[in-house]
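Check out one such.
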Amino acid sequence: MPVAAAFAAAATLFLTACGGGGDEAGDKNDKIAGADQGTPTPTKSAEPSGTPAANNPDGVDVSVPKDMNLVFDWKKPQNKNEAAAMDDAANFFRAIYRGVDKRTTKDAAVAAYSTGEGLHYATTQIQSRIDGGWTATGTRRHYQATTRSAPNGNSVEVSFCVDTSKFYSKEIKSGKVLKSTPSKADYERFELIMVKYPTSKDLWQASKVFLESKAEQCQ
């Protein structure tokens, strides 16, 4: 079964569906949902640690196995903060699937790139696979990304589509890849609220995760 299907039950508990209507989008103006001045400050326990990665300026290892092909098909915005937040939105998902591969919710990358509800979402996704005896394999593509900064300068909304039609669950014991017929459920629209880590110049953490399933704009 695709990754999205494997996590369907768990995801409904920890994700708030984003409305796809134009009225809701039009009412946002310059404000970002969940990114007001009251956004909780990440705790000290979320400070990144672990083995430095040569390709990661944050010094956190977000490497995943080659058969977990996480593709981020997007262009960085010119705004420096938005570009950094977009990079770490990608690292947020790398951290999740690194945790899946390592069979732990305690990997340094998970703590580095998520906080609050984002951390809750990440650990739930990882734990679901641990409990199910699954890992992941195939290609998960992220595309059509947009960014928007909050007026306070400490939060950035990163929105993007995800195609999981070629990304599957795999049984760890048997090695069997669980495939199903491609469907609209393979296409989702995410909105991440990324907040700047207070003691780091360029580190951003996912603090909130919103999801629109079967997103028509992504198909």
Residues 95 and 110 are 5 Å apart (CA to CA). The chain has a mean pLDDT of 80. The longest helix spans residues 80-102.
